[in-house]
Design a protein that fits this description.
Elements: H1 10-21, E1 51-60, H2 71-84, H3 90-107, H4 126-142, E2 160-165, H5 169-185, E3 193-194, H6 205-208, H7 213-221, H8 227-230, H9 237-240, H10 250-263, H11 266-276, H12 279-289, H13 295-302, E4 308-309, E5 313-317, E6 324-328, E7 334-335, H14 338-352, H15 369-386, H16 403-417, E8 423-430, H17 432-442, H18 466-469, E9 475-482, E10 488-494, E11 497-499, E12 516-518, H19 519-528
Helix pairs in contact: 2-3, 2-14, 4-5, 11-15, 12-14, 12-15
């Protein structure tokens, strides 16, 4: 991959700055473009006598396009149906080309961009690439002493930078763009990059069970790919089987299966159906669709007389004529109600926020802020129950599978504390489904509080917000420092803002008001609580 471009200048930089400064509060939730919550000048200084010794990172991939031709094609087909019946308002007539542009941009996403291997849906946008390049720059600046070349006369062995991902393209690419940004600042680091072997599978059993050993081995066991650490929400027998109950990964494997069973459960289905039946959602949907469709068409949609699905084929060709994408919808996304249609529009509205360089249209005109706020709250409710801390009655069901990842964070610092300085940094790139349960398992304030089954999620009953917990490129960083006596202090940053560990570990702080923690006490605190 060529060295990435690290900076933006002029009008483009100003436009991006404006976008990021206004991203929070625009109701994009987990699609919110990354906005670093940087420490202020008044933030706590590194304690006297301590020097940087190690750093590590868990980051969600950067801003991306849609993951597949689903809601966009279904909504496009609904608009086409209304067009045939002369049932579009003037604003509704503008929606048709806007959706087409959205599909075209996603179908060609990444074409001609250095480092993107296969163009199309699910790739990072230019915005997402910059998010990780700039995140790398800031980490380098914050922990600069760690990344300086070792003095050859000292005899010290070069320290490694470990790079891991979930194996999914956008996570892999995020890691590569991040690493290349570090190398642009300090070229000598490139020789010390290591992609470690995964935790699992530990035997051939998981490969043999798939019936396709070569494919499974390549996808699940490639160096630098670790599903148990960074894709634990979708562990399965074909790629990840752990059948020995004495294996340290057995509990995480079983926890993943239990979590996936919850996602398929009737209990969750009923809870999500109750969310969708809330009257404020129907009211917001009607208010939005009334701007786009004529009353008779909207009434027919509400009566079940009109439906639309993501069926049919589309073809898009790049401007230079050198690349063509042919896509066919699978028909599984079906819009049966006004709420379905409005939520499909909301999905495009949120996705457009992450595609500022690729789109020529503004979806804000189709979705007033008052209604966007309602859909955002609905989206957060779904995420809270299906990805977030969830129900008290379920215990750790939604996040127990993150335990190996938390253990891995502690293991890196434990090695340093024991005098093993082989690793200077460990960089992990994954997804919202990994960052969200990690925050819950850590017990972070506003990100881990569960609700009783009798208390429905709402913005009044819960502080959990997708835009804060898992915006694009969301990240958790642990910086470790050591003093001359060998004592290790750790500070955690969430989206680059120093934050406290869980409240029951306050006794591990260096001082009552500090956000630096004595590592040995911090480790004991989490061990006692089972985390």
């Amino acid at each position: 991959m060529p060295a990435p471009r690290l900076a933006r200048t002029g009008a483009a930089a100003a436009a991006l700055s404006l976008l990021l400064s206004s991203a929070y509060g625009q109701h994009y939730q987990t699609k919110t473009p990354y906005q670093p919550q940087l420490a202020s000048a008044r933030s706590e200084a590194v304690p006297q006598g301590y020097r940087p010794i190690h750093t590590q990172l868990l980051a969600r991939h950067g801003s991306r396009g849609l993951t597949g031709m689903k809601s966009d094609l279904a909504l496009y087909n609904l608009v086409q149906l209304a067009k045939q019946q002369h049932a579009l308002t003037p604003l509704g007539a503008q929606l048709e080309p806007a959706i087409y542009q959205m599909m075209e941009a996603n179908a060609l996403l990444g074409y001609g961009v250095a480092g993107i291997r296969k163009p199309g849906y699910g790739n990072e946008t230019m915005q997402g690439i910059r998010e990780h390049q700039q995140l790398a720059q800031r980490l380098y600046q914050r922990m600069a002493p760690l990344f300086q070349p070792a003095d050859a006369s000292s005899g010290a062995a070069p320290r490694q930078i470990l790079l891991l991902s979930s194996g999914k393209d956008r996570a892999v690419d995020s890691g590569e763009y991040f690493a290349q940004a570090l190398f642009a600042l300090q070229p000598a680091l490139q020789a010390h990059l290591v992609r470690p072997a995964p935790l699992a599978p530990r035997s051939s059993a998981s490969i043999e069970s798939s019936g396709d050993a070569s494919t499974t081995s390549k996808n699940a066991s490639a160096a630098g790919t670790d599903r148990f650490l960074l894709y634990f929400h979708k562990l399965n027998p074909k790629t990840d089987l752990v059948s020995d109950s004495s294996d340290p990964l057995y509990a995480a494997y079983q926890a993943s299966l239990a979590y996936q069973a919850w996602l398929r459960s009737e209990a969750l289905s009923q809870r999500l159906a109750a969310l969708e039946a809330r009257p404020e959602l129907a009211q917001a949907a009607h208010a939005v669709l009334a701007l786009l469709f004529q009353p008779a068409f909207l009434r027919a949609l509400g009566a079940g007389q009109h439906t639309a699905a993501n069926t049919g084929s589309m073809q898009f060709t790049s401007k230079d004529g050198q690349y063509t994408s042919r896509l066919t919808g699978d028909g599984e996304t079906v819009l049966r109600t006004p709420v379905d249609a409005a939520l499909a529009l909301y999905e495009l509205y949120a996705a457009a926020a992450d595609m500022q360089a690729e789109l020529r249209t503004d979806f804000h005109r189709f979705l007033p802020q008052a209604q966007a706020a309602v859909f955002a709250a609905h989206e957060d409710a779904i995420s809270f129950y299906s990805k977030g801390p969830g129900l008290q009655e379920n215990g750790a069901l939604n996040y127990a599978m993150a335990q190996p990842l938390l253990d891995d964070f502690f293991a890196e610092v434990e090695a340093v504390a024991a005098g093993d300085l082989r690793h200077v940094a460990k960089l992990r790139f994954a997804h919202a489904e990994i960052v969200i349960p990690m925050a819950a398992l850590l017990g972070l304030q506003g990100m881990s509080e569960q609700l009783a089954a009798t208390t429905p999620y709402s913005y009044k009953s819960s502080p959990w917000r997708g835009e804060r917990v898992a915006p694009m490129a969301a990240n958790i960083q642990w910086d470790a420092y050591q003093n001359d006596q060998g004592q290790i202090a750790v500070r955690m940053l969430y989206n680059e803002q120093p934050v406290d560990f869980k409240t029951t570990c306050a006794y591990a702080k260096l001082t009552a008001t500090s956000q630096f923690y004595d590592f040995s006490r911090l480790r004991r605190c989490y061990q006692r609580s089972g985390a």
